[in-house]
Amino acid sequence: YATADGKDDPTNIRLITYSEVLLNQAEVKYQLNKDGEALDLINEIRNRVGLPDTTTTDVKSLLIHEYKIEKAAEGKWMVEVMRWARTKDQRTGEATFVNPVSIKTGFVPGKHEYLPIPQYEIDYMTQGNLQQNPGW
Questions:
Q1: With 90 as the cut, is the pLDDT of residue 39 above it?
Q2: What are phi and psi for residue 2, nearest 5 degrees?
Q3: Phi (first) and psi of residue 95, to 5 degrees
Q4: Less Cβ crowding at N or C end of the chain, within 10 Å?
Q5: Strand ranges (DSSP E) for the chain?
Q6: What is the DSSP letter of 7?
Q7: Residue 79 and residue 85: Cα distance in Å, rounded?
């Protein structure tokens, strides 16, 4: 990306964080029924910010909680919710901060469970054999 004066910015843009790598690895371990290894990875993330090891044994709920914390300000949370097919549980909500704020998700049932497939991919990449996701 260019800076305001049009010059290239040598600063690398962070596309994925180390904690996200660890969370992804923990999720894979969980899906392979290696809960202990998944918990070790989650605890590594927690320890990096001074939090103690978790005592829970509900790895899936812990993974979802940790993803929510790590990705809260990155605009990636809804993608994770969709990936886990949890949209019907997460479709609306409010968040309260020091100064009360209501956050509306804009979720439309029957549409936002999936992302749209780019029209180019439907038309050219699959010669029209691919159907657009519902609602798009």
A1: yes
A2: -90, 155
A3: -125, 140
A4: N
A5: none
A6: P
A7: 10
